[in-house]
Design a protein that fits this description.
By secondary structure, the protein is an alpha/beta fold. The chain has ten helices and ten strands.
Length: 243
């Protein structure tokens, strides 16, 4: 059974400051934890699980440091409203500066503030084989637990880098394609050249400075009366055409 200090340290990982200071993050739930144990075993430090989860996964228990906990203990360290069997603590993954190259796509996110949206976009990028995702100013924190729940372990397969000073985009020599309401219809755009796809804030879209840098603007043709699309939904539709 974990000691009080261990439980307290895990609880602190629910806070951004705690994650930043420790360089660790949490992941919860049978599916996410299993995928991360298989994808990044060397980064996993410890697992806290109910006996029923351990009984179903003897192979994972044998290969990792799994601590049995009671439902009450799991509830104390869980960030979920309803704790879900197992929780994992892992070291944050190293990020590399992406290098844009012709023929491939990189995602650039502008002020995607909702953790669920960021996690879903990361998962969509993984689905379409996008290896790099750049977060511009105002984006949610990668290791927010809500991001982790939405990625379903795609966090282990897509390199996520934060453009802290906003200089990275101006250094790239590839097409910059902005998702915008006044762009050309997506089906009329030939994306074989690759480039960087710019996705804007959930309610405001891309900031004017980024729109000015764009070499192309594309839009998803609207047939009905909806005012806009969710940022993650729009990303999935556009990548289904480009990739």
């Amino acid at each position: 059974m974990p000691g009080k200090q261990v439980l307290k340290d895990i609880q602190r990982l629910g806070l951004k400051k705690g994650r930043a200071e420790s360089g660790r993050f949490l992941a919860e739930g049978p599916k996410v934890v299993k995928e991360l144990l298989l994808a990044i075993p060397d980064a996993v430090e410890s697992v806290y699980a109910l006996p029923e989860w351990m009984a179903v996964h003897p192979d994972l228990v044998a290969r990792h440091q799994v601590h049995p906990v009671t439902e009450a203990e799991l509830a104390r360290i869980s960030q979920l409203q309803t704790p879900n069997q197992v929780l994992l603590v892992a070291r944050q993954l190293p990020a590399r500066v992406p290098q844009a190259r012709p023929g491939r796509w990189i995602l650039y996110l502008d002020a995607i503030q909702d953790p669920g949206n960021l996690g879903t976009i990361l998962r969509i990028a993984d689905w379409f084989g996008i290896g790099d995702l750049v977060c511009g100013a105002g984006c949610a924190e990668l290791y927010n637990p809500k991001v982790g729940q939405s990625t379903m372990a795609s966090i282990a397969r897509v390199n996520v880098w934060y453009d802290e000073d906003g200089q990275w985009l101006g250094q790239q020599q590839v097409p910059l394609v902005a998702a915008a309401l006044d762009g050309i219809p997506l089906q009329n755009f030939d994306g074989k050249e690759g480039g960087i796809l710019l996705i804007g804030n959930e309610s405001k879209g891309l900031q004017p400075a980024l729109l000015e840098k764009a070499t192309h603007k594309v839009t998803i043709p609207r047939i009905g009366a909806a005012e806009s699309l969710n940022a993650a939904v729009a990303t999935g539709i556009i990548l289904s055409r480009l990739c």
